[in-house]
Amino acid sequence: MxxxxxxxxxxxxxxxxxxxxxxxxIQTGRYDEAxxxxxxxxxxxxxxxxxxxxxxxxxxFTDKLDNALSDFHExxxxxxxxxxxxxxxxxxxxxxxxxxxxxxxxxxxSRYRQKEKVIKKDDAFNALQYTNEWYLFWEENWYTPxxxxxxxxxxxxxxxxxxxxxxxxxxxxxxxxxxHRLYSCRARINKKLNNFKGALEDWNNAISTEKRIPRYxxxxxxxxxxxxxxxxxxxxxxxxxxxDPSNFPVYLKRSNAYAGLKEYKLAIADVNxxxxxxxxxxEAIELCGNLNFKNENYIEALKYFNKNLSKDKSNAEYYKDxxxxxxxxxxxxxxxxxxxxxxDLSPMDGEAYFLKGIACFESGDxxxxxxxWAQAKRNGESGAVDYLHKYCK
Length: 393
Hints:
mainly alpha, Serine Threonine Protein Phosphatase 5, Tetratricopeptide repeat
């Protein structure tokens, strides 16, 4: 049921599916394809601001700036201020300083405003940075006291002065009108210090006062995942995916939470959703193979391990993954070959020697098994000791 609720439909004419395909294209620089997908999605769901915003970005990155402007204006017609920054950037690139400043002002008055350093580093504003209008614009203070405190805290954290940052937060939080910003800062510092309990408490406080920021739910979910609170993590990741089904990394995070509960079918479904759009991610392919292995779907696991090996034959782990699977399916000759390939690439891998020893033993080669277990022991694989005592006296 969760999968049906929070995973994009696989129907090619579903607007969410088209939007996800477009996002995958944008991430890999295939902007023309993204524009085609988003145009189809807009036909199906014409009053959805984020579809125009995404298509506007695709036009922007292909230098079709008039088309980008049209989509960004339509975005704002449907959702006030959502595209202000992109309008400012586009007008800046077109050399229209007046409108660039106008929309940047609107952006900085909105709840979507970016940090000053992010805006100033954006290449779109390179030409404006030498104008009098730009200088006068930044003479004004556009940010709240909390955002100014965030800036100071970011500096302290960058310098590794965590205790100073925490002391400043302790001082600022009680008097803050936007405490969620400062709680989120402290949560991230606590995470860096491995104080997960403190980080979780801070995220709870941040979210209790500001529930409109999907990133907060993702970061709280990550803390819950670290703490083994898998149900809580799943709930937070699912909420974030409801807000934006094209936030692909969250599927992998939720997959790990499902795996923590040994709900492997749901974990596999999430990785497959991710791979539907990001097809060549070898870490995700390996993860899906290992989840199928844990779920005892060995034939399915082999498909993923074979896929990775077809892309990269220089990775010892890929051979070891496949060797383990062959061992489970009792195809010992194939397993021995894969463990041998893994050892050619990583000669000090005690686990590979140990598993190769088991495969040799099961195939009737006791001498080969004892040799490999001895090598496994020399390379720190403690599990080989019992096998040597039992079978190799």
